[in-house]
Amino acid sequence: MKRRYRTCGAATHDSDIPECFRKRARGDLPLGHAHSAKADNKGLSQQAHYDVVILGAGVAGLLLASELSRVSRVLVLERNERPAVTKYWVTTEEALTRNADLASAADWALDSMDFIAFDGATYRSEGSYRLWNTTALTCLLLQRTQERGGVVAFGQTFYSYARGRTGLTIMANGERITARLAIDCMGHQSPIIMAEGCGRIAGYYLLHGATFPMTGTLMPVALHNLSLSEHAAYVEAFPTSDGQLHIVLIIPARELRPSTNLSAEFEFVVRKSPYSKFIADPRKRSFLGGIIPVVRIKRRALDRLFFYGEAGQVHPAASGTALTRMLLSYRDVAAFLADRLHHDRLAASELSEAPGKIGRLNQAIQLALFRDILQWSSRRFRTIVVEADRLRNHQLMNELFFGDFDTTAAGVAMTLRTLTKARNWTLLSAFAGGVARAITT
Asked: In this structure, are 161 and 240 located in the same domain?
């Protein structure tokens, strides 16, 4: 395992949070100066006017905000009282190469990740990977947005919007904010996509984990089906450069069910499983968790409203790989949106032409794979691990992980031949199913 950059660890206590975070969280700063304002005749509050309102101050929202605030009046609204502490995400090394100015938020350079079955069968995927400190990345992007004149307001819950002839009115808390363009980066918390019929949810990844002080040496684990089960769950474990261990329990689910006892299952992993020996003190932890929706997006945009990040499903099956796609394309997306703003070409059909979209075939393959994952038992996952190890084609497996298959006719034919020759029937089924769905829909 190689290391090229060091960075600060994830914020776990209020004292670790940068001053700009803590001021926003305490509410010491107002929503933001309005570039022009007038009394609101509906008795709510003054109306603030911006070129762009971005809904969600996660990595996706702040990536676009940091670029668009160079040339536009930008307001970012975030429902949480402070930026979320999130787990480290893995991307390709190219994501850092193309964004050298973000190197302070990059952690380990990895050359392998393990996929482990319940009985210890292992596939070690090889490639050029980069682990990102996403809390540090959020802090860096927030600082850049504010330095460039953008306004970021926490504790602001978006609940509705209205479309006018020349713009949108965004309703959040007691505020009515007008904008020429809104960008939805709310992920699974977005009420817009489902309410407006812009997508269909195929299921979710449920995440429950924590960051601990680490002892010993552990190779990166991408997925480990630790416990034998009819419906497999997976442990992800990544050591970080500051001596911490990010360990997360991941459960694929078709529906959100309160009865799912993630906490109890995670405590077994932390206190009684083989991973416990790598945790210096199980009481010293910073909680990590979340819900990643897997959505088949029907429309990327509405008039004056653009979907991005998890909300836009730039990668339909995993947020980690979505980060790769965002880091490779967000500057092009921001430049595209700035141009559309300049020329007032903000109809849904024009916004839908934005770069960064995953290809139709790759999306179909990923969705077909996710539908398979929902049905995987421990035995089924073991078959996948054994097939991948037998294949020994790391390039093809990385194309699968990052949703970046060669989708030319020749590329698809080559992939089908490769999987057939290696007798990788499980992966072949998912790949062929995605191809068939893309052709017939």
From this structure: no
Are 207 and 344 within one domain?
no
Residue-averaged pLDDT of the chain: 85
CATH number at residue 72: 3.50.50.60
In this structure, are residues 208 and 289 in contact, taking their beta carbons and an 8 Å threshold?
A: yes
pTM for the full predicted model: 0.87
Give the phi and the psi of residue 370 in degrees, each rounded to 5: -65, -40
Kindly state whether residues 188 and 314 are assigned to the same domain.
yes
3-state class percentages of the chain: helix first, strand second, coil last, to nearest 5 = 35, 30, 35
Tell me the C-alpha distance between 146 and 268, whole Å: 43
Tokens 């893309």: give the residue. Answer: 438
DSSP character at residue 370: H
Per the model's pLDDT, the better-predicted residue between 370 and 56 turns out to be: 56
334 in the same domain as 317: yes
> Under a CB-based contact definition with an 8 Å cutoff, are residues 111 and 154 in contact?
no
- The tens digit of pLDDT for each residue in 171-217 reads 999 889 999 999 999 877 789 988 998 888 888 889 999 999 999 99
Residue pLDDT, tens place only, 283-329 = 999 998 888 888 777 888 999 999 998 766 554 555 557 888 899 99
Query: Six-digit token pair at 34?
Result: 């309005």
Q: Is 294 strand, coil or helix?
A: strand
Has residue 92 been placed in a domain?
A: no
| Domain final residue pick, 330, 351, 372 | 351
Please tell me the distance from the alpha carbon of residue 429 to that of residue 407, in angstroms, as a whole number.
Answer: 17
Residue 37 predicted with pLDDT over 50: no
Residue 308 and residue 210 in one domain: no
Taken in order 317, 86, 287, 130, is the CA torsion positive or negative?
A: positive
